[in-house]
Design brief:
It contains seven helices and five strands, in the order αααααβββββαα. The chain is an alpha+beta fold. Helix 1 (8-26) runs antiparallel to helix 2 (31-47) and helix 1 runs antiparallel to helix 4 (68-78). The longest helix is centred in the N-terminal third of the chain and has 19 residues, at 8-26.
């Protein structure tokens, strides 16, 4: 059996391609047009996995399905190959946020790590949000202030339209000649990180945001 090799955001991307195909089926497009839609979706999916083995490519193949039910079954099969976000103990979580002496943690038993691109929770009392992401093979933590906007907008992480808040954090970027120097960065992100994890299909901005916060510049 092929090992788990699909990330949550990649599965989300595949689901969106399937949605496009199903929408095209509903529109009763000419066979040649529908075939072109399917071929394009198939190419986009394979582009996500340039190192895929022949067995993985066979598993990912969209082009051989014809009905909406077959596409639903296709997605269901792929879920067995999703890589979970590494699980963390409460002690490990606390080590990621050493400055927080009374860190309020989420209920780890309620999390489905297969549906997470990043782990996040909000401390309602302090109005601070904590985010954990696997950056370059290492789990890193980021904390920042959440400022409600009371309106819908585009989330910078998942690029979806919904309820957002302004998240701001202090970077680890330092200036040798100024010990008091600090740099704050921020952007609009989903208030509900579960919704964000369900919608995110590209981690380019999320990675860039963490690299900047960590002071990793390339």
């Amino acid at each position: 059996m092929t090992e788990q090799f699909i990330k949550n955001e990649q599965l989300n991307f595949i689901k969106k391609q399937i949605a496009i195909i199903k929408d095209s089926i509903n529109k009763s497009l000419p066979k040649t047009v529908l075939a072109a839609v399917i071929d394009l979706a198939h190419a986009k999916v394979l582009d996500l996995f340039p190192q895929a083995s022949s067995e993985q490519q066979e598993l990912l193949d969209i082009s051989k399905w014809k009905t909406k039910d077959e596409y639903e079954q296709y997605i269901e099969r792929l879920t067995a190959y999703v890589l979970p976000l590494p699980k963390l103990t409460e002690q490990q979580l606390k080590k990621l946020f050493p400055k927080q002496k009374k860190l309020r943690l989420p209920d780890l038993t309620m999390l489905d790590h297969h549906k997470l691109t990043y782990l996040s929770w909000t401390d309602g009392k302090s109005n601070r949000k904590f985010i954990i992401y696997e950056l370059e093979g290492e789990l890193v933590g980021m904390e920042g202030k959440m400022t409600p906007t009371n309106k819908k907008n585009i989330c910078s992480f998942c690029n979806s339209f919904g309820e957002v808040a302004y998240f701001s954090t202090i970077t680890k970027d330092k200036k040798l000649k100024n010990a008091d120097y600090y740099k704050a960065i921020g952007n609009l992100i989903c208030t509900d990180s579960n919704e964000c994890n369900m919608n995110i299909d590209n981690t380019a901005y999320l990675q860039e945001f963490f690299q900047t916060a960590e002071g990793r510049f390339y």
